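Lab notebook, bench 4. The sequencing result for the construct came back, and we need a structural model before the next group meeting so we can plan mutations. Quick request posted to the team channel:

Model the 3D structure of this chain.
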Amino acid sequence: MSAQAGQPRADCALCPRLFAFRQDNQAAFPDFHNAPVPSFGPPDAALLIVGLAPGLKGANRTGRPFTGDYAGDLLYPTLIQFGLAQGRFGRSPDDGLVLSNCRITNAVRCVPPQNKPTPAEIKTCNQFLAQEIASLPRLRAILALGAIAHGAVLSALGQRKSAFKFGHGALHTLPNGLILADSYHCSRYNTNTRRLTPEMFEAVFATVSEHLSVAA
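Done. Here's the predicted structure in token form:
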């Protein structure tokens, strides 16, 4: 484990399939990050956004969550719109974008084959999400992008999934006082099929931002 809470070591091999896939990608794409992708954002953030896993040519390439693939093209401009990020999003970790009161991570830190981590891999990586959540002293809300991220957050907090059903736009008050908000994942598939529209995504952030403002 690395010295920073919630961050796996760069050479983490806890999931053999993901470790082997990273090694294959290192050979095929030697200029890629090809390691567990660290969280992005200030450690005193009030909002933690949790995605599923790095994309092969997105975060696995750039080393920054949701950077370099389509999902980030919707997420980061939305964060800027709601004052949770400043600067210009340029699909690159050196674009100068800075998060404000917001932090981003993934339920699984390593890129999975076909963008599909196994239940065992999600469970193995959950320790890092639990440590991450525990290390954020000002955390008040968590936004889960997708049902898998929703379940991972509940597992990390020791809560029963059956007690807090995932639903786009849902807002759950957890026993520890944290708010768990849900959104469909901002993937290309979800936006292309109109399962998630920019307006739907913005509505979730409006609700979360209102909660953070009231709780401040």
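The mean pLDDT is 95.
Will bring this to the meeting.
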